[in-house]
Amino acid sequence: MSAAPAVSQEGPLALICGGGSLPLAIADSVSARGRQVLLFPLQGIARPEDYAQRPHTWVRIAKFGTLARAARAAGCHEMVLIGSLVRPAFWQVRFDLTTLKLLPRIAAAFRGGDDYLLSSGARLIEEQGFRVLGAHEVAPEILVPKGALARVQPSEGERADIALGFDYLHATGPFDVGQAVVVAGRHVLAVEAAEGTDQMLERIAALRASGHIRASTVGGVLVKAPKRGQDRRFDLPSIGPRTVEGAARAGLAGIAVVAGSTIVAEPERLIAAADRANIFVVGLPAGSEQ
Amino acid sequence: MSAAPAVSQEGPLALICGGGSLPLAIADSVSARGRQVLLFPLQGIARPEDYAQRPHTWVRIAKFGTLARAARAAGCHEMVLIGSLVRPAFWQVRFDLTTLKLLPRIAAAFRGGDDYLLSSGARLIEEQGFRVLGAHEVAPEILVPKGALARVQPSEGERADIALGFDYLHATGPFDVGQAVVVAGRHVLAVEAAEGTDQMLERIAALRASGHIRASTVGGVLVKAPKRGQDRRFDLPSIGPRTVEGAARAGLAGIAVVAGSTIVAEPERLIAAADRANIFVVGLPAGSEQ
Predict the structure, then answer these.
(1) Region B89-109: what's the mean pLDDT?
(2) Predicted complex ipTM
């Protein structure tokens, strides 16, 4: 029963980095806790300029052998998959030997929804002897807390829109579709599916600019919720400064998410953007979405 | 018990015409049956060039007095509301005296969803002594029949996508949102809300062009269904040649709707477009969507 410090037991943490600013925020947070981080940006998904200033090793999806060897050589036992993913075309993927053996199961994963792809990926990594953690397990401060993050609070009408949004997302939970809707004046204006949150917000902005959205629906709320049965280790819904800017351009009054089940990238910049645009950002207690 | 021909009892039929080609198709069909049609295109919604060759009277939403007087003067007792509607901004509407008395209830209608707006409108018209009919009641041949309309038949995989689409629309029925989704490879790629079917299809085309849609989801199906509890007299889902062209541009394999509960505009042109694009258009028995 030796009581060695947790840090030395854990070894370095491998971060497999998708797109967006979140992977680097997590890397900084884990480093600040005194744990070494190995960055493995995904080729064709992470942006090269984001990694230019830091040690990193580019990896390819489905070339898990390279990644596994580099991680093992560094004494790493734990991995986190984080950042936005655009699912690659199956025929664009070039497989290495380690991965090739797993091909039938990968092909099956490609046929399923996003959740299935990610949890299959995690299972494959774990079979190679690594533990897959959620980003919020290594950097808990990235989760949205309860209450209003910025200055503005939602009105009563906006709270009714939020409730309707959570109801809708709850009803569509079994379908592994998007995790976000825009609701205004008790009316669902947009539902996110393959296009992602940013594009959905652009759509609202365009519909408003062209007069295609009803005048009864000024304002409105972006509502995001985790899907039921979703593997919390990855693919928790996330918001960041860009989400706030998109919501502001779409003329929305605010953003509502589930506290403790939503990742916030760059919280200071997000709060500044919300206060600039005069929109609210609230974390509601888990259970609000059910 | 005199047995006068139905035609003379009915008097002329008033058609309140929204956007699109459907109102004129219905007008032609009713005229061909020997019944006189009065066309009332809605200002700001119907296109003037579509009505240039026919007698018509422009009307404004919420100026029901003009419409009611013109219809009564012509001995008309029955009305049909047909065509696409873009909900007007409440403050852009100018009310006449007849309508002004009903203002509190109209305001309430504006706060509800589309279904509520339309059924409230129909109730107001009926209180003025008119009967409001569904377009399919005066022109039953506009309903999609059971089976494949064009040459191509859906594959087994496509039938599974169709079933998933109907399941999704059934689950979201209580929300008065859109009536259409795009499903490919057992994955919901897009959900229609305020943007309408044509724009949703454009989105799929754009996502595919930019490589943002997964390769596992080639093909795919546009699935449309009536909402539960929808007033069948108006707002039945509809398809037309434009829907087929949009589906083809989006790379879809076909279109599935509920037979007997979907309106088809310009069926000959729709079938020709489907055969040109090699995509299927099927009407499935009512109940498939439940």
Answers:
(1) 48
(2) 0.73
